[in-house]
Amino acid sequence: MKAKTIKAVLRKKIDEWALTVEDLAVRELIQKNTIVTGGAIASMLLKEPVNDYDIYFRNHATTLAVAEYYVKRFHPTNRKGIPCNISISDKDSRITIVIKSAGIASEEGTEKPYEYFESRQEGEAGNYVAEIMDDPGDIQDAYEQTKEAVLESEEDGKPPYRPVFLSTNAITLSHKLQIVLRFYGEPEEIHENYDFVHCTNHWKSWDNELILRADALESLLTKELRYVGSKYPICSIIRLRKFIKRGWSVNAGQILKMVMQASELDLKNIEVLRDQLTGVDAAYFFEVIQKVREKDPEKVNSAYLIEIIDRMF
User: Fold this and answer.
1) φ, ψ for residue 222 (rounded to 5)?
2) pTM over 0.70
3) Other CB atoms closer than 10 Å to residue 251's CB: what's the count?
4) Which tens digits make up the pLDDT trace of 142-163?
5) In 85-161, where do the E strands start and end?
6) d(Cα 20, Cα 187) in Å, to the nearest integer?
7) What is the mean pLDDT of residues 83-104?
8) Rounded distance, CA 171 to CA 106, Å?
9) Strands 94-99 and 104-107
10) Residue 307 and residue 270: Cα distance in Å, rounded?
């Protein structure tokens, strides 16, 4: 898909979402401060279906307002179908959703897995670099061709863009929107927390600008993972499985960079371990975290962690 078409599709997608927000003040914040980055743009560049649009915000005020708006409108259950007690925590410039005794919560009847920093589906890169920067083509035709990727079917009769899944760090809406609460700021600040360069292309709502980075396009074209450093190297190591299954390659040097960063972490500290699992499916590791919390910190060592992980998995 061409760059100008991607920009038009994202503009339409965010405008459609914003119009469903009943609070006019929150709607205005969304329209002025939204960033789309991650796997959605990569998928569109490769003319592949978009799994989710990862949404970030430019500032703390917007992130908090959107989180509060959707938590008030959410009537969730945990994985056992029990209603959840949910609140917002705003401490030390970090906004989190507190889901007591659950860890995650979903709309009744929803079994959607939580996929954070979701990337593109498997597919061939092809000779798209020249295409995407070429003539914009017919935008209306592009909407028709990508209709399923832009807006899901409403056959279920439920409202569009409703919250269907909550975790500590994100709110998943229907119609393929995932609102990330863990990070906010200008795109450069957000990408300090990203690991692979191909996910760093981004679009900004306030000026309707699409930024396509040359190194990100090259990585997509070659399907070669390039690790740019992250605050969450454990997440990056775990994410390797997904990319390798989808036909990506990674050289030993990139893996060594992740391991070097991971070696600086005290993973026996439960708060460090929990924070490092921010970027992966929290549901998989919730029981691990709970078991470690129950243990005397002095007795938590590598052997204990390995035993717990083996039991849980």
Assistant:
1) -90, -10
2) yes
3) 11
4) 334 334 433 444 445 788 999 9
5) 86-91, 94-99, 104-107
6) 25
7) 76
8) 10
9) unpaired
10) 15
